């Protein structure tokens, strides 16, 4: 338990040490770059492309693209609405918090 601070309990030091070790191992791994796939993911991706229905793959791509476009447009409208809003007239605090909570749950 070298390197632990005096005020930490021994079990806390062991937990912190294990977390630091995992983070160091993960940071040193070459697959941790953003967007990099591990070997199993590459095989799965190849299998989906070769065995999958091309029409279904194309439809999935188009729907995903449209969803992203509409999501960006909705976000643009939300920003414009709140930017031009001078007072809270007509809005309830309860509905604002419920909508904010739903947005937090919806985002990955």
SSE blueprint and pairings:
Elements lengths: L9 H19 L10 H13 L2 H31 L8 H14 L2
Attribute tags:
108 residues, mainly alpha, 2 domains, disordered N terminus
Explained architecture:
The chain is mostly helical and 108 residues long. The chain folds into 2 domains: 1-31; 59-108, no CATH class. 71% of the residues lie in helices and 0% in strands. The protein has helices at residues 10-28, 39-51, 54-84, 93-106. The longest helix has 31 residues, at 54-84. It is elongated and about 55 Å long. Residues 1-9 have low confidence and may be disordered.
Give the structure's gist in a few sentences:
With 108 residues, the chain is mainly alpha-helical.
Radius of gyration: 24 Å
Provide the structure class. Answer: mainly alpha
Elements, N to C (H/E): HHHH
Helix content: over 70%
Topology, number of strands: 0
Q: Report the uncertain regions.
A: 1-9
Assembly annotation: single chain
Count of DSSP-assigned helices: 4
- Gap between N and C termini, in Å? 37 Å
Strand content range:
under 5%
**Overall mean pLDDT score?**
74
């Amino acid at each position: 338990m070298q390197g632990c601070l005096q005020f930490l309990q021994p079990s806390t030091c062991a937990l912190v040490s294990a977390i630091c070790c995992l983070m160091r191992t993960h940071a040193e791994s070459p697959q941790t770059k953003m967007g990099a796939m591990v070997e199993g993911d590459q095989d799965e991706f190849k299998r989906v492309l070769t065995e999958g229905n091309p029409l279904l793959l194309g439809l999935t791509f188009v729907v995903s693209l449209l969803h992203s476009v509409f999501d960006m447009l909705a976000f643009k409208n939300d920003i414009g609405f709140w930017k031009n809003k001078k007072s809270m007239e007509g809005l309830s605090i309860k509905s604002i918090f419920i909508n904010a909570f739903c947005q937090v749950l919806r985002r990955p």
